[in-house]
# Entry
Amino acid sequence: MTIGIAVIGAGMAGKAHAAAYRVAPTLYDSTLPDLRYVSICDVNPEISQATARRYGYERGDTDWRAIAGDPGIDVVSVVIANSLHLEVVKGLLEAGKHVLCEKPLSDTLASAREMARLAQEASTLARIGLTYQRQPGIAAIRDWIRDGTLGRVHHFSGRYWCDYGCDPMAPISWRYKGPMGSGALADVGSHLTYLAEFLCGEVTAVSGGAFTTVVAERPVPLGNVIGHELAAVSDRMEAVENDDYATYTATFSQAAGSLEASRVAAGYPNGLAIEVFCENGAANYHQARPSQIRLYLNGNQPGANGYRTVNLGADHPYVSAGMPIDVAGVGFGQNEGFAYQARAFLEEVVGIPEERSLPRNASFGEGVHNMEILAAVVQSAERNGEQVKL
Ligand SMILES: NC(=O)c1ccc[n+]([C@@H]2O[C@H](COP(=O)([O-])OP(=O)(O)OC[C@H]3O[C@@H](n4cnc5c(N)ncnc54)[C@H](O)[C@@H]3O)[C@@H](O)[C@H]2O)c1
# Structure
């Protein structure tokens, strides 16, 4: 058995998927069948060809239908703008491909629900890549919440601060188009919202939804733009339609918390930070140090208690037996998260049972649930911060 792999979209995150499938079989002993790296597809032919060469895929395509129609391809990552997910995922599922789609599931709740319906009917797998659950610090904190070391979360504080929109000359792109809530909230707030539930359980209500757009218009780029690139721009401007900054308060069944998403937070290129305050202590995580956390455990040494730094190593999730050097201190980054995510997807595709596999990727149903929370934040903002129940 050989599994043929393709990636659609070779921009910022598409390259991470392309690389991740190469690394995936090298994590742990090989329990996967032979993998064939078939195609990287991008509407821009130069990008598809260059990315295929760079990551050792056989060819570059420019139309996703070439992937759907290729019987040699089994597994496909969909890594293009959110508004394009539905059409491409639909075509792939109908062609019998296993699909790993990027977050958020789509640009509208209606199309995300349609994708979940298609996934239910499909004979193949459809999963959504919410990569950060695999960062060692986040996985360890969740384990300590669940095994009682930290215990039940009382208070959650999370922020995903980025600075990619700080420069008003950063070119307009698909990220700046769409209604309020489709900006920073959907782009990075989707990750943060997923992690809040990963640690605290289901959100039951949101309130205090608020959005700001700081940069009202941005220049049109002269050529193709990838990710957050500061490319050459024309003197034509286009309106920024959605949120540069978003915030809300979440209520969980036994906790509450505040969440903030920003793309105009100067000095924070990728500032995902989380704190949990729990019945037996507290912990905090920052994306700059994914395999190092700060841990505080309630103790009986008045005057001597305090936060301590814990370097996660071979005893902790995602570091143990995965990377070539699997000891504390070797470090772990966002790209590794994609590799473990790809490995988890391939293990599920080939039927390795859940108890012998990495934690599964989220379902499209969970992707819809994530977007329902974001839609409730939009409703809350429209009603001046009123509470909206889920
Ligand atoms: N999980 C993460 O950490 C993470 C990080 C970044 C982006 N994302 C998600 O990944 C997706 C893509 O984001 P990005 O930042 O990589 O975007 P990007 O703009 O950098 O790249 C998108 C690429 O898609 C190509 N493209 C456009 N239309 C296409 C089509 N019809 N067929 C094939 N290719 C097409 C473009 O030419 C471009 O190269 C989004 O859903 C985003 O939310 C996830």
